[in-house]
Each structure stands twice: as C-alpha cells, then as structure tokens.
Amino acid sequence: MSLTITDECINCDVCEPECPNQAISMGETIYVIAPDRCTECVGHFDEPQCVQVCPVSCIPVDPANIESRDSLWAKFNRLQAQAQQAQAQHAQAQAAAAARVEPALVGSPAEGPK
Ligand code: SF4
Ligand code: SF4
C-alpha cells in the first residue's frame, strides 16, 4: 500500500527530504505522496520514514492504494532499475560531452618559449 497525506498537514517540510523514493512533493496547498513511487519504504527501511518524522501524524495508509508486500517490492525494484538507467544515461552524456571537448583542446596547443 502507499501512504497519503491528509489535510491536517502543516507544510513543515520535514518529510519530503526523508523519503528514499522522492515520492513526496509540494502539492497545490499541502504536501502529497505519489502512489507510484511510495513503497511504504520497503526496500530501504523497516518503517515508513515520513510517518516517523511527521509532527502531526497526518500520514495514514491510503485506502485507495492498498498493495501487497510483493507489489511493494516489485515497485521498489522498478524504481531501482529506473534510477540505474538514468545514471547510465547521465554517464553516457558526460562521456559524449568530454569527447567533444578533448579534440578542441588538442587542436589549440599552448605556445612555448621562442
Ligand atoms: S512511506 Fe517511505 S516511500 Fe512512502 S512516502 Fe513515506 S518516506 Fe516515501
Ligand atoms: S511531516 Fe507531516 S506536517 Fe510536515 S509536511 Fe510532511 S505530512 Fe505535512
């Protein structure tokens, strides 16, 4: 299951950086949890980190998004695969950018003493 934030949220900003899945963001008026990114912290921690830190206890289970533990693990694995793919693409882009810069450096040697 994923969790949800109720309208008792006081926008204290504490939970957002604690989420290992970047599932929490500021909504129109209060913070919100993206159900497709919340694993209830399965794969990262024993307890939901947002629930641990919320000072007003306004993060219950979302009755509209009840999931089995297997489903949460599958979501965790999907998010990990996405993150690895993004890292690989970033590394490829950096390597391509470096390859474009190097010939320019080779083509303009510094002048030595005469
Ligand atoms: S339970 Fe965990 S994964 Fe879900 S929103 Fe809270 S901190 Fe993020
Ligand atoms: S920790 Fe609780 S009160 Fe603070 S922003 Fe998150 S949901 Fe809202």
Would you write up a description of this structure?
It holds the Pfam family Fer4_7. InterPro entries: 4Fe4S_Fe-S-bd, 4Fe4S_Fe_S_CS, PSI_iron-sulfur_center, YfhL-like. It comes from Piscinibacter koreensis. By secondary structure, this protein is mainly alpha-helical. It has a single domain (16-105), classed as Alpha-Beta Plaits (2-Layer Sandwich). Helices cover 38% and strands 5% of the residues. The protein contains 2 helices and 2 strands; from the N terminus they run E-E-H-H. It has helices spanning 49-53, 69-106, and strands spanning 24-26, 31-33. It has a two-stranded antiparallel ribbon with strand order 1-2. The radius of gyration is 22 Å and the shape is elongated. The protein starts with 23 loop residues before the first strand and ends in an 8-residue tail after the last helix. It binds iron/sulfur cluster (2 copies). Residues 3, 18-19, 21, 23-24, 33, 38-41, 48-50 line the site of one iron/sulfur cluster.
